[in-house]
Amino acid sequence: MESPAVHDADGPAALAANSPDAAAPSPPPTKRRRTAPVLADCCRTCRLRKVKCSGNPGNGPCSNCARLELGCNFASVNHVEETTVSRTTPSHSHTEAGTLRKRAQRACSQCHSHKTKCSGDLPRCKRCEAANLPCEYTPAKRRFTNVRFQGSNKSVDTQPPAPGSAAQSDGIISPTLSSSSGGGGPGSVTLFTEASNLNAEDILARKHLILRHMDAYMDNVYWLPSQGFVHPDSTYREIHEGTLDPVHAAGICAVASSFVNPTETGREFAQRCSTQIELYLFQNVYKFSDDLLILFALNITFNVLQGSFAKVWQCFGIASRLMLGLRINWHVLPRGRSFIQQESLRRIGWHFFHMDRMLAGGYDEYICCRAENMRIPLPCDEAAYRENRPVVAERLYDKPGKPPSSINLHAFQIRLIDIRHRIQVITKRLCSASGTNLQHVDASKIMADINGLQNELTRFHSSLPSEVRLCDQSISRFMASPERPGYVFLHCHLAGCHIDLYRFFLPGQKEKIPLEILRKLPREFLARSQKQAVAHSMSFARFCDAIQNEVAQMRDTGKQELAADYSTIQVGTACVRVLLVAIQHQLFRDISQETTAPLWRLGKIDEAHLRFLIKSVQRVTEPWCGLLNMAQQAYDHNKTLVEEFDKSKRVADQRCADRAFRPRTDGDNRLPGTDSLSGADRWFHTPQMPTGPALQYPTSPASSFGIEPGTPGIPLLLAQARTASMDPSEMAAMYDSDNTIMGLTDLTGALPDGNPLMTPNDVPLMQINGSIDPAMYQQAPPGPSPGFALAQQGIFMDGYTGQFANGHREPNSFGQQTGYG
């Protein structure tokens, strides 16, 4: 009887020698898995890494562990137990053994299914980013826990993982969830968590999230008027090094979130970023520092995009006073700052200059940043700004210099914005004139002012560099460059300035020049003005068609390519109305004669061509409908206007009051909520419309509630900020009439019941030589409640739980025209 085979370290030869039947032939041995011998001179670290160990040197770690600086049980054999394991929690950067990872820890589902190499980047890998594919990382099947190192105490052997890291590892990281903020949900990336509380994977995910929003900011926002105050190279370097201030990162993410993730989760993420900025500004309201200006600038831009105009008005009031107090506009800059920092402050000052004119809506009485007080140079050449190379740039009303110029597209945009504001001031005074003052209007003075502004626009166009002027070559060049938004803004608003200057002489406009004034003007002047409006509208629409075609021919880059910018919507809506009026009254005949519009791509002009141009304007607006609510409303408004014209063959000439006013809730109308401020619901309530009779201001015996002479009209953005009830469809109206004044009946409809408003017969309307615009209503603020008083006390006693507690010429030297009176 054979004894059972014994498997030991001696191998098959020893078995044959010990067998009694050694001489007999034996069947061939069956193949089996070879088990490695347990060597006493192999450390546990090398055994886990499955590498050959150099052995125990007797006085320290093995050569492998010493070279890779890993824990080795040979270093202190007497104090190491058998259960101690020298390994680390694997991450994107290091393996389980603690070495640098050469490839991704795990592939996304797309790369895994196609068996291609995955870069492992978050929130999307390079392959999915380039192909615009959904990128999802499924949770790993293998679980890793933090195992104590040598010399560690047994009491810390089983430390629970951080809540954020546990949620991160168990969930799916996708672009949608990465753009949503989130209260610890699966895959949420906490932008505002301190870096010390995040593991390597979370830090990398947050870095990629900020980089993605910074890229979107550079692609879509940076080249818009005076938005280039974020220095690209410095910001990217700080993001990669992890030193970017979280509140600055929140500002960039808030503005760019609409372009990264135009969904409800993306809007919620942007709103939470804005809330964090407002908390920080409230915490530091006692500081008189220029560091707060960039936060105001970013937050104001975000609220403009979201339509929260009440916040825009109030935040801009604080920001402009801070800028004036720091005397940034007088070129009094802090000492010890680099040229980049000084230029960024100057650009922020011009950003407020632009926002000031946008909010004023053509009413000079609401201007805070006066042109004569803006003594700072215009934004300098972009190359000098990025290279930190000091240059002396031109000022607002300096005579344009010869090429090479010391200014860039931002500076030309500022000059155009200033001209456009003065055009709006004159046209609003013309459209608001009424009463007995009409007999004092001088027709020659009106024609001189219109011609003067036209000459200023012509000089501005002549001052543009040759490579920026409108032609097929410049369109192809700039549409493929990062400067695309600035180039498009410049030419769209140059055409928009001409349209605003002449469109009020056309019929079918919501705001018209009084008939008494039109009768005093020569017929030739009126006919030429109408052709000017139509010709520039056609030029604008042809430009829209050209830029949209250029974008359509671009290869798929994995992101949405936008031909225009958000401000083009306003000019586009005015252009559609002008083109419809031209079709109705056949004003496109002999349009090429006596016009300053560029005869670019001019072909056969008939009704079919004008309808094609209207569709071209709608093509440019349509991609923005999924990003901004106001774009969707403007698009629907234009579509309805065209449909009504097709039915009635005339342009609808209706006022805002013809529509019913319904409550609207666009934008965030609360102070920071419960996620950031304890007890917010107790102290800060959502504003409600008053239901009872309106409160009255205390009146003196010598006067009563009325309208003072000289009171300016109300721009539409201010009316939206003052009233909490407005039809969402009226959002498109502000693009139709370029922030035109709301009539008295419109204001009555917008006010709550019980608000007294003086009738037009009680006071004279605007005087050309003395200035009364249509009446401005007044509404007394509700008296402070006890809860509100306690809330103010609670803010400053308890404080917030901070997330971040870590040679100038005069205007008339460049052709500025005088107004009426």
TrEMBL record:
Record's subcellular location: Nucleus
Record-linked Pfam families: Fungal_trans (PF04082), Zn_clus (PF00172)
Biased composition (Low complexity): 12-24, 171-180
CC terms in the record's Gene Ontology section: nucleus
Record keywords, A-Z: Metal-binding, Nucleus, Transcription, Transcription regulation
Compositionally biased residues, Basic and acidic residues: 1-10, 657-669
Segments forming domain Zn(2)-C6 fungal-type: 42-74, 107-137
One of the record's GO molecular function terms: DNA-binding transcription factor activity, RNA polymerase II-specific
Alphabetical list of InterPro entries matching this protein: TF_fung (IPR050815), XnlR_reg_dom (IPR007219), Zn2-C6_fun-type_DNA-bd_sf (IPR036864), Zn2Cys6_DnaBD (IPR001138)
TM region(s), chain numbering: none
Main subcellular location of this protein, as a coarse class: nucleus
Example of a GO biological process term: DNA-templated transcription
Descriptive protein name: Fungal zn(2)-Cys(6) binuclear cluster domain-containing protein
